[in-house]
Amino acid sequence: ALTELESNRVNRELASHNSSLSAFHDTRTTMEDAKLMMQRLNAPTGCEALIITVRSNSEHFNPPEAWITSEHVSSFFEMAFKQTPHSIASRLEGYCISGVEGVTRNYVQETIQMKKDLVQLIQDKLNAAAGKTKVPRMYYKNFDQHITAKYGIKIVNWPLEKFRCPSEIPTRVEVQLLMSAWESGTTYFHKMTSADTSGTLPRVPT
This protein's superkingdom (predicted)? Predict the structure, then answer.
C-alpha cells in the first residue's frame, strides 16, 4: 500500500511538471506565431500592436512578456501611464496569480528596486565626475562637507524639493522624476574649478 501511495505521488508530481512544461512551450510557440503575424501586418500597413502574455498559475514557467511592434507603443505607455509595457505585464501577472494583493506586492517590490537602481546610478555619476579620484560613498546629509569641500563636486539642478537619499523618497513619482533627471543629464555632478570654489560653496536643497 505504501509503495502504491508513493507511486501515485510521483505520478502526480510528474503530471504537474509535464503540464507546466506543456503550457510553457505552448505559450512560447503561440506567441512567436502571433508576433510574426503582427510583424507581417505592421510592415505594409504601419499598424501598431502590443501583445501581453502572463501566467495565471504560479507553477507555470513562462515569464510575463510585453511585445511591441515599435518603440512608438512603448513611448506612449511611458507618457500616458508612466510605466513601460513590461512593468504593466509584471503587475498584470501579480493580479492574475494573487489578485490585488499580488499587484500591490509587485508594485512595492518594483519601487524598492527602482530606488536601489537610482542609488547605484547616482554613485556611478559621482565617480564619473570625480575622475581618477574614487569617492567611496555618496553623502546626502552634510553633502557640502563630505563631497563638495572634499572633492570639489557640486550637484546641479536637483529636481526635488528635499535633498535626500532615494531610499527615503516617499513617492514612486518622485523616484521616477529623479531617475529621469539623472538619465537625461538635466541633473548632474559638476567638478568645480578653482574659480568655482572661491567664496561660499554652493549648497544643495535641504
Answer: Eukaryota
What is the count of structural domains for the chain?
2
Q: Which helix (H) or strand (E) element contains residue 52?
A: strand 50-53
What average pLDDT score do residues 14-43 get?
Answer: 84
Distance CA 136, CA 80 (A): 38
Quickly tell me which residue has 526635488 as its cell: 160
The per-residue pLDDT for range 100-118, each reduced to its tens digit, is 676 677 778 888 999 999 9
- H helix intervals, the chain: 2-45, 71-81, 85-98, 100-130, 143, 149-151, 172-184
Residue 9 located in a structural domain: yes
Q: What is the pLDDT of residue 35?
A: 95
The pTM of this model reads 0.52
192 three-state secondary structure: coil
Backbone angles phi, psi at 137, to 5 degrees: -160, 155
Same domain (yes/no): 11, 90: yes
